[in-house]
Design goal:
This protein is mainly beta. The protein is built from 4 helices and 49 strands. It is globular, with a radius of gyration of 29 Å.
């Protein structure tokens, strides 16, 4: 009996030890641990064409704040670059997880020496190293570096990630850091409803109709057919006004849960899929990120519930109640109620999303033509072998709207009273087949699994002072596709490259020439031209003395490609800050003065070269 009691006592001691040991392995907040911290970004926050994969921890606009190892581990990887994560450390921990610390200003002393020696030995600023044999190990709470603003950072902060052994991004807030506090509820700004086939309607209209949220009053709607709902929403944590992402979305129809999506794990392989997780037509035209509460073709993510797609089929003769609830990580919530097909109530006034750059737009498989309704109520549609007189489908304000199902036939032109609209559709592109098309102006190669959903791309070639390759109805691809342009004009092949000309300033794309055709890869088809760059980069001295050398380097057209600095024939390391267009020297021996003949050479992407010589 005594022995049994002794065994139970020893078991209790052992279990208590395990519990204490596990608690002692709790992760440490990596910056200013033990006091309240503030975030400017969280896991799953939408960043246009990708998800944010961790926390952005504010440093109050300062650099040089000590950064500590969140748990015991060794350095698996070190990266240094003028873009992306800038200076970053990847720690591998005893539990198999990894932590990432990015946009650092500098590493701890041992890592700094290791990186600096590599850079001087290999005459390179950019580094991507995997130190062997667990060479650099750190205990939880030991200094690993200092916060900064390196890489593509938009301001001083620490980007912090926790990943599992497969490099999936975990939600760091799941590790119960007491340094982050939030008692504020998230905000829903707009609800958007999209008609998902040509017969669906929202308040007797077709397209994407938005409804602003006012005083949390319910939205009253008339719906018919298949409808997809999306919302424009954000969260703000305690202490600052930074907008961050929503952690969880719920959609109920008649009190039945239809969608429950919570973002606590993200795969790097799917981060590009954010392009279809948001309403792409709205983002393309307005740069607003409406999160879909439904899963249409191509919208596949690991946190989606595969059993329900969230698409709501509405019988116009029945009433429905829809509730949307959003949550932040701390379970603060906000909700909005939609009352559907209640004929006793007046319907809320919505806004047809402005998707019309011209007189028409394409949404999914439907061509929408918009005309002034003060003239007539029909238009003529010209097909390859027929002409159709089409009546308007609905009206809004001063416009009539006409709908054409592109799956059945693709029109050549539409005849209006005062003008004609020429359509230049290429063959439609879907995700099931390899797609290749070629004309006298271009070639397109699209491998399978590159397309989110069927696309109806238009192409037109225009020539004035330059040749312009114009694409319309374009939306992002999952992965790169291959595009070849065939110019009429002759070009200097070593100075001429493809540029995106959709915005005011041409943006360098690049490309490779072969047989007077230029080929490049892209995830987003845009408007292009082939431009010639014969002007060298600019070099501006900011500071040059025996202690430090700093320049601004810039190029008006093709952009900076590379640079090299030498002192008395010996290579000097310059750290590149792409966003500020600056390079700054870093000595191998901090006590050795810069003295003698200094030469810097800067090259742009068109291989133009600019040199500057200084006597220090």
């Amino acid at each position: 009996m005594v022995i049994m009691k002794m065994k139970k006592y020893l078991v209790l001691i052992f279990l208590s030890y395990i519990s204490f040991n596990l608690n002692s392995q709790d992760y440490l907040f990596p910056i200013k641990p033990g006091i309240q911290n503030y975030l400017s970004g969280n896991l799953g926050e939408l960043r246009g064409d990708h998800f944010h994969m961790g926390l952005d921890i504010k440093t109050n606009g300062k650099i040089g704040i000590p950064v500590y190892a969140t748990s015991n581990g060794y350095v698996e990887r070190i990266r240094v670059s003028g873009t992306g994560y800038g200076k970053a450390i990847y720690l591998k921990h005893e539990d198999g997880n990894k932590s990432v610390y990015a946009h650092l200003n500098k590493f701890d002393t041992n890592l700094e020496k290791y990186i600096l020696n590599y850079q001087y030995t290999n005459k390179t600023f950019i580094a991507n190293l995997y130190p062997p044999d667990k060479r650099f190990s750190y205990k939880k709470g030991e200094l690993i570096g200092f916060s900064g603003n390196s890489g593509s950072s938009g301001g001083p902060h620490l980007h912090f990630e926790i990943r599992d052994s497969l490099d999936n991004a975990l939600n760091p807030l799941e590790f119960k850091f007491k340094e982050i506090v939030d008692k504020r509820s998230p905000t829903i700004e707009y609800v958007s409803l999209k008609t998902l086939n040509i017969n669906s309607r929202v308040n007797n209209k077709f397209g994407i109709i938005k409804f602003p949220i006012k005083n949390n009053n319910p939205i009253k709607l008339s719906l018919d057919g298949e409808i997809g709902i999306s919302i424009l929403a954000y969260d703000r944590l305690d202490g600052f006004l930074n907008k961050v992402g929503i952690n969880k979305f719920e959609l109920y129809v008649n009190d039945s849960l239809v969608i429950s999506n919570r973002i606590n794990l993200l795969k790097y392989s799917e981060t590009n899929n954010v392009s279809w997780y948001i309403e792409p037509n709205i983002y393309k035209n307005q740069k607003k990120q409406y999160v879909k509460l439904y899963q249409d073709d191509g919208n596949s993510l690991s946190f989606h519930n595969p059993s329900k797609n969230g698409i709501i089929s509405i019988d116009p003769d029945k009433e429905y109640f829809i509730e949307i609830i959003i949550y932040d990580y701390f379970n603060n919530s906000s909700s909005i109620r939609l009352e559907i097909n209640n004929s006793e109530k007046s319907f809320s006034e919505g806004i047809i999303s402005e998707l019309f750059n011209e007189n028409y737009s394409v949404i999914d498989n439907t061509l929408i033509i918009r005309t002034d309704n003060t003239t007539r109520n029909s238009i003529d549609i010209i097909y390859k072998n027929s002409i159709d007189n089409l009546n308007f489908s609905f009206e809004e304000g001063n416009y009539n709207y006409y709908l054409i199902d592109l799956r059945k036939n693709q029109p050549i032109k539409a005849l209006l009273d005062d003008k004609e609209i020429n359509f230049n559709f290429l063959d439609f592109v879907n995700d099931k087949n390899y797609y290749r098309t070629e004309s006298k102006d271009l070639k397109i190669n699209i491998n399978r699994s590159r397309v989110f959903d069927t696309l109806y791309i238009e192409f037109d070639k225009r020539t004035d002072s330059i040749e312009k390759f114009i694409f319309k109805n374009t939306l992002p691809f999952k992965k790169n596709i291959e595009l070849t342009l065939k110019p009429y004009k002759n070009h200097k092949l070593d100075k001429s490259y493809v540029y995106d000309i959709k915005n005011n300033k041409p943006s360098f794309i690049g490309g490779k020439w072969k047989n007077k055709e230029i080929t490049f890869k892209t995830r987003k088809i845009s408007n292009y031209s082939i431009l010639e760059d014969n002007e060298p980069p600019n070099i501006t001295i900011i500071k040059a003395n025996s202690k430090i050398i700093k320049f601004k380097i810039d190029d008006e057209l093709s952009g900076i490609n590379s640079y090299t600095g030498n002192l008395n024939g010996n290579w000097i390391l310059f750290e590149y800050d792409n966003k500020n267009k600056t390079i700054i020297s870093k000595k191998l021996d901090p006590n050795k003065a810069f003295k003698g003949k200094f030469v810097i050479d800067v090259f742009d992407n068109a291989k133009n070269k600019k040199s500057l010589i200084l006597n220090l």
